Amino acid sequence: MEPKHTPLHNEHVRLNAVMAPFAGWDMPIHYGSILDEARHARDAVSIFDTSHMGEFIVKERAGSSSLDRAVTIPVAKMKIKRCRYGFLLTEEGKLLDDLIAYRIEDGQWMLVVNAGTVDKDFRVIQERLSSDASIENISEATVKIDVQGPRSLEVMKALVGDTIKKLTYYGLDFFNLMGGTFLISRTGYTGELGYEIYIDSRKGADLWKQLLSHPAVKPAGLGARDILRLEMGLPLYGNEFTEETTPLDGGMERFLDMDKDFTGKQALLEQQKRGVVRRLAGFTVDGRRTPRHGNRILAELNEVGFVTSGVFSPHLNRGIGMGYIDAGRSGPGGEISIDTGKGEIRAVLEPVPFLKNTSIKYSEA
Amino acid sequence: MDITVLDEYFYTEEHEWAKIEGKRAKIGISDYAQQKLGDITYVEPAEIGKGVKQFEFLTGIESVKAASDIYAPLSGTIVSFNDSLNQAPELVNRSCYGEGWIVEIELSDPGESKNLMDAAGYREYAGGLE
Protein backbone atom coordinates (compact mmCIF):
# COMPACT_ATOMS: atom_id res chain seq x y z
CA MET A 1 0.00 0.00 0.00
CA GLU A 2 1.25 3.49 -0.90
CA PRO A 3 2.17 5.38 2.27
CA LYS A 4 -0.19 8.25 3.07
CA HIS A 5 0.82 11.89 2.92
CA THR A 6 0.17 14.30 5.77
CA PRO A 7 -1.32 17.67 4.79
CA LEU A 8 2.18 19.13 5.30
CA HIS A 9 3.83 16.82 2.77
CA ASN A 10 4.56 19.60 0.26
CA GLU A 11 6.23 21.65 2.99
CA HIS A 12 8.59 18.78 3.77
CA VAL A 13 9.44 18.31 0.10
CA ARG A 14 10.11 22.04 -0.21
CA LEU A 15 12.51 21.77 2.77
CA ASN A 16 14.35 18.88 1.06
CA ALA A 17 13.38 16.43 3.78
CA VAL A 18 14.55 12.84 3.56
CA MET A 19 11.26 10.96 3.71
CA ALA A 20 10.60 7.34 4.66
CA PRO A 21 7.56 5.20 5.43
CA PHE A 22 6.53 5.06 9.09
CA ALA A 23 3.33 3.36 10.32
CA GLY A 24 1.76 3.66 6.86
CA TRP A 25 2.76 7.30 6.36
CA ASP A 26 5.46 8.93 4.27
CA MET A 27 7.16 10.95 7.01
CA PRO A 28 10.13 13.33 7.21
CA ILE A 29 13.03 11.50 8.89
CA HIS A 30 15.28 14.55 8.78
CA TYR A 31 15.91 17.78 6.90
CA GLY A 32 19.71 17.45 6.74
CA SER A 33 21.08 16.12 10.02
CA ILE A 34 19.28 14.07 12.66
CA LEU A 35 21.85 14.99 15.33
CA ASP A 36 21.72 18.72 14.58
CA GLU A 37 17.93 18.61 14.76
CA ALA A 38 18.03 16.83 18.12
CA ARG A 39 20.49 19.40 19.46
CA HIS A 40 18.41 22.31 18.18
CA ALA A 41 15.34 21.05 20.06
CA ARG A 42 17.28 21.23 23.35
CA ASP A 43 18.91 24.58 22.51
CA ALA A 44 16.06 26.54 20.91
CA VAL A 45 12.81 25.32 19.33
CA SER A 46 11.99 22.55 16.87
CA ILE A 47 8.70 21.88 15.15
CA PHE A 48 7.57 18.40 14.19
CA ASP A 49 4.77 17.31 11.86
CA THR A 50 2.97 14.65 13.89
CA SER A 51 -0.21 14.66 11.80
CA HIS A 52 0.16 10.92 11.30
CA MET A 53 -1.08 10.41 14.85
CA GLY A 54 -4.74 9.69 15.49
CA GLU A 55 -7.36 11.78 17.26
CA PHE A 56 -10.80 10.62 18.37
CA ILE A 57 -13.58 12.68 19.91
CA VAL A 58 -15.58 10.73 22.47
CA LYS A 59 -18.84 12.04 23.92
CA GLU A 60 -20.52 10.45 26.88
CA ARG A 61 -22.88 12.07 29.36
CA ALA A 62 -21.93 12.42 33.02
CA GLY A 63 -22.86 9.41 35.10
CA SER A 64 -22.26 6.98 32.28
CA SER A 65 -18.77 5.51 32.48
CA SER A 66 -18.05 3.21 29.55
CA LEU A 67 -15.05 5.30 28.37
CA ASP A 68 -13.73 5.31 31.92
CA ARG A 69 -13.76 1.50 31.87
CA ALA A 70 -12.32 1.29 28.32
CA VAL A 71 -8.95 2.87 29.18
CA THR A 72 -6.67 2.96 32.24
CA ILE A 73 -6.96 6.76 32.46
CA PRO A 74 -9.54 7.98 35.02
CA VAL A 75 -11.29 10.08 32.40
CA ALA A 76 -14.36 10.67 34.59
CA LYS A 77 -12.24 12.12 37.39
CA MET A 78 -10.09 14.33 35.16
CA LYS A 79 -10.43 18.07 35.44
CA ILE A 80 -11.71 19.92 32.40
CA LYS A 81 -8.91 21.28 30.16
CA ARG A 82 -6.39 18.79 31.49
CA CYS A 83 -4.53 15.93 29.75
CA ARG A 84 -3.55 12.52 31.10
CA TYR A 85 -1.38 9.71 29.81
CA GLY A 86 -2.42 6.06 30.01
CA PHE A 87 -3.18 2.85 28.16
CA LEU A 88 -5.67 0.87 26.15
CA LEU A 89 -5.39 -2.77 27.27
CA THR A 90 -6.72 -6.17 26.32
CA GLU A 91 -8.62 -8.25 28.91
CA GLU A 92 -5.23 -9.95 29.49
CA GLY A 93 -3.69 -6.61 30.44
CA LYS A 94 -1.61 -6.46 27.23
CA LEU A 95 -0.92 -3.12 25.58
CA LEU A 96 -3.08 -2.28 22.57
CA ASP A 97 -1.75 1.28 22.69
CA ASP A 98 -0.58 4.12 24.86
CA LEU A 99 -2.55 7.32 24.56
CA ILE A 100 -3.32 10.73 26.01
CA ALA A 101 -6.84 11.74 27.02
CA TYR A 102 -7.77 15.42 26.74
CA ARG A 103 -10.79 16.42 28.79
CA ILE A 104 -12.20 19.08 26.52
CA GLU A 105 -15.45 19.83 28.36
CA ASP A 106 -18.09 18.13 30.44
CA GLY A 107 -18.96 14.89 28.67
CA GLN A 108 -16.36 15.30 25.90
CA TRP A 109 -12.82 14.01 25.49
CA MET A 110 -10.21 13.87 22.75
CA LEU A 111 -8.05 10.76 22.69
CA VAL A 112 -4.67 11.02 20.96
CA VAL A 113 -3.37 7.65 19.78
CA ASN A 114 -0.45 6.29 17.77
CA ALA A 115 -0.46 6.31 13.97
CA GLY A 116 -0.03 2.58 13.48
CA THR A 117 -2.86 1.70 15.84
CA VAL A 118 -5.59 4.18 14.83
CA ASP A 119 -7.95 1.69 13.18
CA LYS A 120 -7.49 -1.00 15.85
CA ASP A 121 -7.95 1.49 18.69
CA PHE A 122 -11.05 2.98 17.11
CA ARG A 123 -12.67 -0.45 16.72
CA VAL A 124 -11.81 -1.54 20.26
CA ILE A 125 -12.98 1.66 21.94
CA GLN A 126 -16.16 1.76 19.86
CA GLU A 127 -16.97 -1.80 20.97
CA ARG A 128 -16.40 -0.90 24.61
CA LEU A 129 -18.52 2.27 24.60
CA SER A 130 -22.12 2.07 25.73
CA SER A 131 -24.88 2.82 23.25
CA ASP A 132 -25.41 6.36 24.54
CA ALA A 133 -21.76 7.29 23.98
CA SER A 134 -20.24 8.24 20.63
CA ILE A 135 -16.78 8.20 19.07
CA GLU A 136 -15.62 10.07 15.99
CA ASN A 137 -12.28 9.67 14.24
CA ILE A 138 -11.08 13.19 13.34
CA SER A 139 -7.54 12.15 12.40
CA GLU A 140 -7.85 12.87 8.67
CA ALA A 141 -9.24 16.35 9.28
CA THR A 142 -6.57 17.26 11.85
CA VAL A 143 -3.07 18.59 11.50
CA LYS A 144 -0.90 18.19 14.58
CA ILE A 145 2.31 20.18 14.99
CA ASP A 146 4.57 19.80 18.02
CA VAL A 147 6.50 22.89 19.11
CA GLN A 148 9.27 21.77 21.45
CA GLY A 149 12.27 23.40 23.08
CA PRO A 150 13.36 25.71 25.89
CA ARG A 151 12.39 28.79 23.85
CA SER A 152 8.98 27.46 22.78
CA LEU A 153 7.08 29.81 25.09
CA GLU A 154 8.58 32.75 23.22
CA VAL A 155 7.53 31.22 19.90
CA MET A 156 4.02 30.47 21.15
CA LYS A 157 3.67 34.00 22.54
CA ALA A 158 4.47 35.36 19.10
CA LEU A 159 1.80 33.08 17.62
CA VAL A 160 -0.96 33.20 20.24
CA GLY A 161 -0.19 36.17 22.47
CA ASP A 162 0.45 36.39 26.21
CA THR A 163 -2.57 34.21 27.06
CA ILE A 164 -0.48 31.13 26.22
CA LYS A 165 1.30 31.64 29.56
CA LYS A 166 -1.72 30.33 31.44
CA LEU A 167 -1.21 26.84 30.03
CA THR A 168 0.48 24.75 32.70
CA TYR A 169 2.16 21.36 32.21
CA TYR A 170 -0.44 18.92 30.79
CA GLY A 171 -3.03 21.70 30.49
CA LEU A 172 -4.99 22.43 27.31
CA ASP A 173 -7.10 25.24 25.89
CA PHE A 174 -8.72 26.59 22.73
CA PHE A 175 -7.45 29.67 20.93
CA ASN A 176 -8.97 31.55 18.02
CA LEU A 177 -6.24 32.21 15.49
CA MET A 178 -5.73 32.54 11.77
CA GLY A 179 -9.48 32.38 11.23
CA GLY A 180 -9.89 29.06 13.03
CA THR A 181 -9.89 27.35 16.39
CA PHE A 182 -6.67 25.82 17.68
CA LEU A 183 -6.51 23.24 20.43
CA ILE A 184 -3.17 23.66 22.17
CA SER A 185 -1.82 21.53 25.01
CA ARG A 186 1.40 21.90 26.97
CA THR A 187 2.58 18.40 26.25
CA GLY A 188 5.21 16.71 24.13
CA TYR A 189 7.58 13.84 23.58
CA THR A 190 10.98 15.47 23.98
CA GLY A 191 11.45 16.33 27.66
CA GLU A 192 11.57 20.04 26.83
CA LEU A 193 9.08 22.80 27.46
CA GLY A 194 6.68 22.35 24.60
CA TYR A 195 3.26 22.49 23.05
CA GLU A 196 1.17 20.33 20.75
CA ILE A 197 -1.16 22.15 18.38
CA TYR A 198 -4.23 20.54 16.79
CA ILE A 199 -5.93 22.40 13.95
CA ASP A 200 -8.14 21.98 10.91
CA SER A 201 -5.92 20.26 8.34
CA ARG A 202 -6.67 22.99 5.76
CA LYS A 203 -4.83 25.51 7.95
CA GLY A 204 -1.87 23.20 8.58
CA ALA A 205 0.53 24.52 5.95
CA ASP A 206 -0.14 28.15 6.96
CA LEU A 207 0.60 27.37 10.59
CA TRP A 208 3.74 25.42 9.71
CA LYS A 209 5.07 28.35 7.65
CA GLN A 210 4.10 30.86 10.33
CA LEU A 211 6.00 28.89 12.99
CA LEU A 212 9.06 28.53 10.74
CA SER A 213 9.19 32.28 10.23
CA HIS A 214 10.32 32.69 13.86
CA PRO A 215 14.14 32.87 13.94
CA ALA A 216 14.45 30.37 16.82
CA VAL A 217 12.49 27.66 15.00
CA LYS A 218 13.77 24.86 12.78
CA PRO A 219 11.97 21.78 11.49
CA ALA A 220 12.87 18.38 12.93
CA GLY A 221 12.02 14.91 11.69
CA LEU A 222 11.19 11.57 13.23
CA GLY A 223 14.90 10.73 13.58
CA ALA A 224 15.46 13.56 16.06
CA ARG A 225 12.12 12.81 17.74
CA ASP A 226 13.30 9.27 18.43
CA ILE A 227 16.56 10.48 19.99
CA LEU A 228 14.80 13.10 22.12
CA ARG A 229 12.19 10.72 23.50
CA LEU A 230 14.78 8.03 24.21
CA GLU A 231 17.06 10.48 26.04
CA MET A 232 14.06 10.96 28.35
CA GLY A 233 13.37 7.22 28.58
CA LEU A 234 9.92 7.65 27.02
CA PRO A 235 8.49 4.46 25.51
CA LEU A 236 7.43 4.12 21.87
CA TYR A 237 4.52 1.91 20.93
CA GLY A 238 5.80 -0.83 18.63
CA ASN A 239 9.20 -0.86 20.36
CA GLU A 240 8.88 -0.81 24.16
CA PHE A 241 5.15 -1.53 24.10
CA THR A 242 3.50 -4.28 22.06
CA GLU A 243 0.59 -6.65 22.46
CA GLU A 244 3.07 -8.97 24.18
CA THR A 245 3.75 -6.58 27.07
CA THR A 246 1.79 -5.10 29.97
CA PRO A 247 2.19 -1.72 31.69
CA LEU A 248 3.73 -3.58 34.65
CA ASP A 249 6.43 -5.07 32.41
CA GLY A 250 7.09 -1.51 31.33
CA GLY A 251 7.33 -0.18 34.89
CA MET A 252 4.36 2.13 34.25
CA GLU A 253 2.60 1.65 37.60
CA ARG A 254 2.39 5.40 38.18
CA PHE A 255 0.11 5.75 35.14
CA LEU A 256 -2.40 3.17 36.34
CA ASP A 257 -5.38 4.15 38.45
CA MET A 258 -6.07 0.93 40.35
CA ASP A 259 -8.89 2.60 42.31
CA LYS A 260 -11.21 2.40 39.30
CA ASP A 261 -12.41 -0.34 37.02
CA PHE A 262 -10.89 -0.82 33.54
CA THR A 263 -10.42 -3.55 30.96
CA GLY A 264 -7.30 -5.52 31.84
CA LYS A 265 -7.25 -4.53 35.51
CA GLN A 266 -7.93 -8.04 36.79
CA ALA A 267 -5.07 -9.47 34.74
CA LEU A 268 -2.72 -6.76 36.03
CA LEU A 269 -3.68 -7.49 39.65
CA GLU A 270 -2.85 -11.14 39.06
CA GLN A 271 0.45 -10.27 37.35
CA GLN A 272 1.27 -7.99 40.27
CA LYS A 273 0.85 -10.95 42.62
CA ARG A 274 3.00 -13.25 40.46
CA GLY A 275 5.61 -10.58 39.79
CA VAL A 276 6.94 -9.54 36.40
CA VAL A 277 9.40 -11.78 34.56
CA ARG A 278 11.15 -9.14 32.51
CA ARG A 279 11.16 -5.45 33.21
CA LEU A 280 11.84 -2.47 30.97
CA ALA A 281 15.13 -0.79 31.87
CA GLY A 282 17.36 1.92 30.45
CA PHE A 283 21.08 1.62 29.84
CA THR A 284 23.98 3.77 28.71
CA VAL A 285 26.81 2.46 26.59
CA ASP A 286 30.48 2.74 27.48
CA GLY A 287 31.40 4.54 24.24
CA ARG A 288 29.87 5.79 21.03
CA ARG A 289 28.44 2.58 19.64
CA THR A 290 24.68 2.30 19.20
CA PRO A 291 22.58 -0.62 20.42
CA ARG A 292 19.77 -1.44 17.98
CA HIS A 293 16.23 -2.74 18.26
CA GLY A 294 16.29 -6.53 18.60
CA ASN A 295 19.89 -6.89 19.83
CA ARG A 296 20.34 -9.56 22.52
CA ILE A 297 21.25 -8.45 26.05
CA LEU A 298 23.77 -10.63 27.89
CA ALA A 299 24.98 -10.69 31.48
CA GLU A 300 27.75 -13.05 32.55
CA LEU A 301 27.39 -14.84 29.20
CA ASN A 302 23.69 -15.56 29.75
CA GLU A 303 21.00 -14.10 27.55
CA VAL A 304 18.94 -11.95 29.93
CA GLY A 305 16.88 -9.79 27.59
CA PHE A 306 16.65 -7.79 24.38
CA VAL A 307 16.94 -4.21 23.21
CA THR A 308 13.70 -2.44 22.29
CA SER A 309 15.26 0.89 21.21
CA GLY A 310 18.74 2.33 20.89
CA VAL A 311 20.18 5.59 19.62
CA PHE A 312 23.32 7.63 19.77
CA SER A 313 22.68 10.45 22.25
CA PRO A 314 24.24 13.70 21.02
CA HIS A 315 23.78 15.19 24.50
CA LEU A 316 25.55 12.39 26.38
CA ASN A 317 27.92 11.56 23.50
CA ARG A 318 27.29 7.86 23.90
CA GLY A 319 24.90 5.15 22.90
CA ILE A 320 21.75 4.80 25.02
CA GLY A 321 18.84 2.43 24.91
CA MET A 322 16.04 0.57 26.59
CA GLY A 323 15.16 -3.07 26.70
CA TYR A 324 13.44 -5.85 28.58
CA ILE A 325 15.72 -7.54 31.10
CA ASP A 326 15.13 -10.41 33.56
CA ALA A 327 13.49 -8.73 36.54
CA GLY A 328 16.18 -9.95 38.96
CA ARG A 329 18.84 -8.19 36.92
CA SER A 330 17.01 -5.06 35.84
CA GLY A 331 18.07 -2.79 38.72
CA PRO A 332 20.24 0.31 38.14
CA GLY A 333 24.00 -0.25 38.17
CA GLY A 334 23.82 -3.69 36.60
CA GLU A 335 26.44 -4.35 33.94
CA ILE A 336 25.28 -5.83 30.67
CA SER A 337 26.69 -6.61 27.31
CA ILE A 338 24.77 -6.06 24.06
CA ASP A 339 25.27 -8.42 21.17
CA THR A 340 24.96 -6.28 18.04
CA GLY A 341 25.72 -9.08 15.63
CA LYS A 342 28.87 -7.05 14.87
CA GLY A 343 30.56 -7.48 18.22
CA GLU A 344 29.52 -6.77 21.79
CA ILE A 345 28.91 -3.42 23.46
CA ARG A 346 29.34 -2.90 27.21
CA ALA A 347 26.60 -0.95 28.96
CA VAL A 348 25.33 -0.11 32.44
CA LEU A 349 21.70 -0.06 33.54
CA GLU A 350 20.62 3.42 34.50
CA PRO A 351 17.41 5.00 35.71
CA VAL A 352 15.57 7.09 33.13
CA PRO A 353 15.37 9.89 32.17
CA PHE A 354 19.00 9.81 31.03
CA LEU A 355 18.93 13.60 30.79
CA LYS A 356 18.07 15.56 33.89
CA ASN A 357 17.25 19.26 34.24
CA THR A 358 15.59 19.80 30.89
CA SER A 359 13.10 22.66 30.42
CA ILE A 360 9.95 20.49 30.59
CA LYS A 361 8.43 21.74 33.83
CA TYR A 362 9.35 25.36 33.27
CA SER A 363 7.07 27.82 35.01
CA GLU A 364 7.19 31.61 34.97
CA ALA A 365 6.17 31.94 38.59
CA MET B 1 21.10 13.59 -4.82
CA ASP B 2 24.04 15.90 -5.61
CA ILE B 3 27.30 14.10 -4.92
CA THR B 4 30.92 15.14 -5.10
CA VAL B 5 33.34 12.76 -6.81
CA LEU B 6 37.03 13.67 -6.84
CA ASP B 7 39.11 12.98 -9.95
CA GLU B 8 42.31 11.61 -8.48
CA TYR B 9 40.58 8.88 -6.42
CA PHE B 10 39.55 5.28 -7.17
CA TYR B 11 36.14 3.94 -6.07
CA THR B 12 34.39 0.66 -5.25
CA GLU B 13 30.79 -0.38 -5.88
CA GLU B 14 30.35 -0.33 -2.09
CA HIS B 15 31.27 3.39 -2.09
CA GLU B 16 34.73 3.30 -0.57
CA TRP B 17 37.46 5.42 -2.12
CA ALA B 18 41.24 4.93 -2.31
CA LYS B 19 43.84 7.58 -2.98
CA ILE B 20 47.07 5.94 -4.03
CA GLU B 21 50.32 7.72 -3.17
CA GLY B 22 53.31 5.59 -4.12
CA LYS B 23 53.10 2.30 -2.23
CA ARG B 24 50.43 3.47 0.14
CA ALA B 25 46.76 4.34 -0.17
CA LYS B 26 44.45 6.36 2.03
CA ILE B 27 40.95 4.94 2.27
CA GLY B 28 37.61 6.43 3.13
CA ILE B 29 33.97 6.44 2.12
CA SER B 30 32.50 8.47 -0.72
CA ASP B 31 30.21 11.46 -0.53
CA TYR B 32 27.38 9.23 -1.75
CA ALA B 33 28.01 6.85 1.17
CA GLN B 34 28.21 9.54 3.85
CA GLN B 35 25.03 11.18 2.59
CA LYS B 36 23.18 7.86 2.54
CA LEU B 37 24.40 6.88 6.02
CA GLY B 38 23.60 10.24 7.57
CA ASP B 39 25.34 11.49 10.71
CA ILE B 40 28.29 9.20 11.45
CA THR B 41 28.48 8.43 15.18
CA TYR B 42 31.28 5.84 15.38
CA VAL B 43 34.11 4.47 13.29
CA GLU B 44 35.66 1.28 14.61
CA PRO B 45 39.41 1.80 15.10
CA ALA B 46 41.17 -0.50 12.63
CA GLU B 47 43.96 -2.70 13.93
CA ILE B 48 47.38 -1.45 12.85
CA GLY B 49 49.47 -4.16 11.24
CA LYS B 50 46.48 -6.22 10.18
CA GLY B 51 46.47 -7.56 6.64
CA VAL B 52 43.41 -6.92 4.48
CA LYS B 53 42.33 -8.29 1.13
CA GLN B 54 40.69 -6.35 -1.67
CA PHE B 55 36.88 -6.18 -1.25
CA GLU B 56 36.97 -7.93 2.12
CA PHE B 57 35.98 -6.51 5.51
CA LEU B 58 38.15 -3.61 6.65
CA THR B 59 36.33 -2.06 9.61
CA GLY B 60 32.90 -1.04 10.90
CA ILE B 61 31.09 2.28 10.79
CA GLU B 62 27.91 3.40 12.54
CA SER B 63 25.51 6.20 11.76
CA VAL B 64 22.31 7.38 13.40
CA LYS B 65 20.53 5.06 10.99
CA ALA B 66 22.54 1.83 10.90
CA ALA B 67 25.77 -0.07 11.42
CA SER B 68 27.65 -0.90 8.21
CA ASP B 69 30.83 -2.58 7.06
CA ILE B 70 33.62 -0.87 5.17
CA TYR B 71 35.46 -3.06 2.67
CA ALA B 72 39.07 -2.67 1.60
CA PRO B 73 39.36 -1.23 -1.92
CA LEU B 74 42.88 -2.69 -2.16
CA SER B 75 44.92 -5.45 -0.48
CA GLY B 76 47.71 -4.66 1.94
CA THR B 77 48.60 -3.98 5.55
CA ILE B 78 46.91 -1.33 7.71
CA VAL B 79 49.59 1.18 8.70
CA SER B 80 47.43 3.86 10.30
CA PHE B 81 43.95 4.70 11.49
CA ASN B 82 42.63 8.26 11.59
CA ASP B 83 42.54 8.75 15.36
CA SER B 84 40.65 12.05 15.07
CA LEU B 85 37.57 9.95 14.28
CA ASN B 86 37.51 8.60 17.85
CA GLN B 87 36.36 11.97 19.18
CA ALA B 88 34.93 13.42 15.97
CA PRO B 89 33.47 10.78 13.65
CA GLU B 90 31.42 13.59 12.08
CA LEU B 91 34.60 14.45 10.13
CA VAL B 92 33.47 11.70 7.75
CA ASN B 93 30.34 13.76 7.03
CA ARG B 94 32.12 17.08 6.94
CA SER B 95 35.10 16.08 4.82
CA CYS B 96 34.77 12.53 3.51
CA TYR B 97 37.67 12.85 1.04
CA GLY B 98 39.96 14.86 3.33
CA GLU B 99 40.02 15.03 7.14
CA GLY B 100 37.50 12.21 7.28
CA TRP B 101 39.83 9.59 5.78
CA ILE B 102 39.66 6.31 7.70
CA VAL B 103 42.75 4.13 7.26
CA GLU B 104 46.03 4.07 5.41
CA ILE B 105 47.22 0.84 3.83
CA GLU B 106 50.64 -0.30 2.67
CA LEU B 107 49.71 -1.89 -0.66
CA SER B 108 50.67 -5.43 -1.51
CA ASP B 109 49.58 -5.14 -5.14
CA PRO B 110 49.04 -1.62 -6.55
CA GLY B 111 47.95 -3.27 -9.81
CA GLU B 112 44.63 -4.14 -8.15
CA SER B 113 43.48 -0.61 -8.90
CA LYS B 114 42.41 -1.96 -12.28
CA ASN B 115 39.48 -3.59 -10.40
CA LEU B 116 38.27 -0.17 -9.19
CA MET B 117 36.30 2.57 -10.88
CA ASP B 118 37.89 5.87 -11.77
CA ALA B 119 36.06 9.13 -11.06
CA ALA B 120 34.21 9.15 -14.38
CA GLY B 121 33.14 5.55 -13.96
CA TYR B 122 32.02 6.08 -10.37
CA ARG B 123 30.16 9.29 -11.21
CA GLU B 124 28.13 7.34 -13.73
CA TYR B 125 27.66 4.37 -11.38
CA ALA B 126 26.56 6.41 -8.35
CA GLY B 127 24.43 8.70 -10.52
CA GLY B 128 22.48 5.67 -11.68
CA LEU B 129 21.60 4.65 -8.10
CA GLU B 130 19.04 6.33 -5.93
How would you explain this protein's 3D organization?
The complex is a heterodimer of chains A (365) and B (130). Chain A is of the alpha+beta class. Chain A folds into 3 domains: 9-53 and 140-231, 2-Layer Sandwich (Gyrase A, domain 2), CATH 3.30.1360; 54-137, Aminomethyltransferase beta-barrel domains (Alpha-Beta Plaits, 2-Layer Sandwich), CATH 3.30.70; 277-350, Elongation Factor Tu (Ef-tu), domain 3, CATH 2.40.30.110. Helices cover 19% and strands 34% of the residues of chain A. Chain A is built from 8 helices and 19 strands. In chain A, the strands form 4 sheets. Chain A has a 6-stranded mixed beta sheet, sandwiched between helices. In chain A, strands 14-17-16-15-18-19 form a 6-stranded antiparallel β-barrel. The mean pLDDT of chain A is 96. Chain B has 130 residues and is of the alpha+beta class. Helix content of chain B is 18%, strand content 33%. Chain B is built from 4 helices and 9 strands. Chain B has helices at 31-37, 84-87, 91-94, 119-127; strands spanning 10-11, 16-21, 24-29, 40-43, 51-52, 57-63, 67-71, 76-81, 103-107. In chain B, the strands form 2 sheets. A 6-stranded antiparallel beta sheet of chain B has the order 1-2-3-9-8-5. Chain B has a 3-stranded antiparallel beta sheet with strand order 4-6-7. Chain B is globular and about 35 Å long. Chain B starts with 9 loop residues before the first strand and ends with a helix. The mean pLDDT of chain B is 96.
Descriptive tags:
heterodimer, A: alpha+beta, Gyrase A, domain 2, Elongation Factor Tu (Ef-tu), domain 3, six-stranded mixed sheet, six-stranded antiparallel β-barrel, 8 helices, 19% helix, B: 130 residues, alpha+beta, OB fold (Dihydrolipoamide Acetyltransferase, E2P)
SSE inventory with pairings:
The complex is a heterodimer of chains A (about 375) and B (about 130).
Chain A: H1 9-14, E1 18-22, E2 25-30, H2 34-43, E3 45-49, E4 54-59, H3 66-70, E5 82-89, E6 95-105, E7 108-113, H4 118-128, E8 134-137, E9 142-148, H5 152-160, E10 172-177, E11 180-185, E12 194-200, H6 204-212, E13 217-219, H7 222-231, H8 265-274, E14 278-285, E15 296-299, E16 302-313, E17 318-326, E18 335-339, E19 344-350
Parallel strand pairs in A: 3-13
Antiparallel strand pairs in A: 1-2, 3-9, 4-7, 4-8, 5-6, 6-7, 9-12, 10-11, 11-12, 14-17, 14-19, 15-16, 15-18, 16-17, 18-19
Chain B: E1 10-11, E2 16-21, E3 24-29, H1 31-37, E4 40-43, E5 51-52, E6 57-63, E7 67-71, E8 76-81, H2 84-87, H3 91-94, E9 103-107, H4 119-127
